[in-house]
Automatic annotation (TrEMBL):
Hemopexin repeats lie at residues 27-76, 77-123. Transmembrane segments: none annotated. Gene3D superfamilies: Hemopexin-like domain. It comes from the Eukaryota. This is Matrix metallo ase-19-like protein. SMART domains: HX. Pfam families: Hemopexin.
Length: 124
């Protein structure tokens, strides 16, 4: 997923998914975003709040947002720098030199946060 301005492009592999780009109805200057497979929706994070954007949802659905990020996944940091959904089903959220890994059940796993260098296999 790539978000620029008020539009979002979604890719499967390296191929643009049908019907994209689509117009977003969320605040500009988001901090991070990821695809939440269990809800088939995009999650946008800004500060300590999140928006759930369901491409099939109505405008009324978006009126329920923003919500506190802790209601979605407790233990994530506010103001993340980046996030992504891994092919392993986990959600990875980055802030500074640390990252958090949440399970598909939306729980931050024990032992996190960790240094980002560990995930990227960077040498000291």
């Amino acid at each position: 997923m790539i978000a620029i301005g008020d539009k979002v492009w979604r890719y499967s592999g390296f191929k643009l998914d049908g019907g994209y780009p689509k117009r977003l109805t969320i605040p500009s200057n988001i901090h991070a975003a990821f695809f939440l497979k269990s809800r088939r929706a995009l999650v946008f994070i800004k500060g300590s709040q999140y928006w759930l954007w369901d491409e099939l949802g109505s405008a009324k659905h978006l009126q329920l947002y923003p919500k506190p990020l802790a209601q979605l996944i407790a233990g994530l940091p506010p103001d993340p720098d980046a996030a992504f959904s891994g092919t392993d089903g986990h959600i990875y959220v980055f802030r500074g030199e640390r990252y958090w890994r949440a399970s598909p059940a939306l729980v931050v796993e024990k032992g996190y946060p960790r240094r980002s260098r560990e995930l990227m296999h960077c040498d000291d």
